Amino acid sequence: MKVIQDFNASVPSNFSNSLSRPIPASPSNITLASFGLAVNSTGSTVVLIGTVGIESLLGLPDISLKIFRNTALIGTVSVNTLAVSEARTTTFQVIDNNPPTGYHAYNLTAEVINPLLNQATAIGPISFSGTSLAPGM
Length: 137
Description:
By secondary structure, the chain is an all-beta fold. It has a single domain, classed as Jelly Rolls (Sandwich). It is built from no helices and 9 strands. Strands 1, 2, 4, 7 and 9 form a 5-stranded antiparallel beta sheet that branches. It has a 4-stranded antiparallel beta sheet with strand order 3-8-5-6, with no helix packed on it. Strand 5 (62-69) and strand 6 form a beta hairpin. The model has no long low-confidence stretch (mean pLDDT 95).
């Protein structure tokens, strides 16, 4: 059985249409959520879960959500819209297997990867959480 070592979360908003954070064109990005998490044992697993609400403002933007441990990219999620002014909420899970021991910053960023005549904004909800699990005994 795995043992929980640490848990943390960043929740800028639990509500739809509660924010208006423009998502910049790649290679720029916006940090949507971040938190610190302790990993106390080698062979640990970190389970990351996020939810992001996005609205297309112009065109059909393709958005890349990126998950970082400190400065290392550990996961990406692609989100796209099918219509102008479409709101879309996406939920994802990323597993960080065997991260180094220590205290780590986990960050969730967003960027529009097809910026020509395409714009998007993060509208909420936005939540990002992580659980650090020690290996079973």
